Amino acid sequence: MTATTTLAYDDVNVGDVLPELSVPLTRTLIVATAIASRDYQDVHHDPGLAQERGSKDIFMNILSTNGFVGRFITDWAGPDAVLERVKIRLGAPNYPGDTMVMTGTVVEKHDGLVEVAVKGANSLGDHVTGTVRLALPRDTT
């Protein structure tokens, strides 16, 4: 579900849990997002070469993961939210045929800024963990 209105700063509380976002990891998604981010590394589009380099298959690149983290936050917060900082760390690879489930919790709120702890997990474990700091308007009326 995509937010059509922006949350106001006063609408958010520490401890709020964001709605989950499930991302089916299709081969097409992994290849297309790598190409869209101009990452032409063969491990993101060529299964044979990815296997030669020690991976079981192609896998999602970090720029795509970063994009999904941003989408997860803005789907919740709305189009007027401004991402101030995204700090993420990669873990288990996102392989085709799996699903990444994004979750998040508001962990801090100060001076118009909100910090959300985020996690994207698949069947192998945590693919991405980190925090996103965003600015929300004081009033949306």
Q: Would you summarize the structure shown here?
A:
By secondary structure, the chain is of the alpha+beta class.
Question: Could you please describe the fold and organization of this structure?
Answer:
The structure is a single chain. This protein has 141 residues and is of the alpha+beta class. It has a single domain, classed as Thiol Ester Dehydrase, Chain A, CATH 3.10.129.10. The chain has three helices and five strands; from the N terminus they run βαααββββ. Strands 1-3-4-5-2 form a five-stranded antiparallel sheet, covered by helices on one side. The mean pLDDT is 94.
In whole angstroms, the N-to-C terminal distance is 22 Å
Shape: elongated
How many independent structural domains? 1
The count of strands amounts to: 5
